[in-house]
Amino acid sequence: MAEAYIVEAVRTAGGRRNGKLAGWHPADMAGEVLNALVDRAGLDPAVVEDVILGCVTQAGEQAFAFARNAVLASKLPVSVPAVTIDRQCGSSQQSVQFAAQAVMSGMQDVVIAAGAESMTRVPMFSNTAYHAKEGVGVGPFSPRIQQRFGVESFSQFGGAEMIAAKYGFDRETLDRFALESHRRAAAATKAGAFEREIVPLDVDGVPHVTDEGIRYDATLDSIGSVRLLQEGGVISAANASQICDGASGALVVSERALKDYGLTPIARIVDMVVTAGDPVIMLEEPIPATQKALKRAGLRIEDIDLYEVNEAFAPVPLAWLKALGGDPDKLNVNGGAIALGHPLGASGTKLMATLVHALKARGKRYGLQTMCEGGGIANVTILEAL
Predict the structure, then answer these.
(1) Burial zone of 95 (CB within 10 Å; 0-12 exposed, 13-18 middle, 19+ buried)
(2) Which residues form the active site (predicted)?
(3) Any bridge partners for residue 12, and if so which?
């Protein structure tokens, strides 16, 4: 089978809600990522055959063929097509997998996989606001779905509480994990670990190059003082991912493109899967998805040098570690979404950029990335750094 390679993987530094990136239109933010990918690769933008861009809240400034608008906001010629996809939090990880499938099938040679989300300018659930405001319809979950699963809606917060209870995680365990996320992110930032992957965005004449959400002075007490989201629960805003503005992307190419355009790959896509399971507990699916991916690749968890498991809520990566027998020292080594933010549709390629560059910086070989996603879906991508 033909191979798919990653030539560049970049991201913007995260912006907090109403923070430094609040003034950036999401299409422009995504356009800067597209520009950076072709510029850093030294590639003629005209040879890009497609842009596949993930975005979860496709409303307002992220509506009306958002991916196409990102291309129009970039230096890519108008001849480059684009499509917007929604696989919830895994949207841009799925962008990579779709791009790789196109390359591996021989249909295309140069595809950009990307994601963007301005959670400040296009708040979560604003794409369902019409129904609530106008009293039209019942929202995304039909009566048939509600009857089948015995719920009015599917809650990721509820799913996180279920996972914490199932795997026996108390609040202190979750808060300690959150604190470690901030500590690792702070250490990585101070060491310059993110410099290679970050695309600077101009904010009032100053380049935005540092993730805004990191709490350098975080303590267990300060994290523990944050109000719980549910009475009697263990999930708080402090041990869950931060609302974040950002964009990210990866340039995925064939072996033929490497030769034709003189490109140097930084990673090879080893294997990729997407699976689905229980939509109620929802966030547990990365566990069976990882098991399937490892089996397909002929690898064991011990063979993986680094893993990025999205920190949507602290119980998710902790349950993944416990079920897979993973090494905590290999998990989210530069911090995760609890500290760095989770810009929904951009998080897939954001994590991939961090994973690829972390592997190369450490001289390691295999990386695995997985995301829990709304509806009980999960993507897993295994990479080999080159």
Answers:
(1) buried
(2) 89 (acyl-thioester intermediate), 342 (proton acceptor), 372 (proton acceptor)
(3) 199
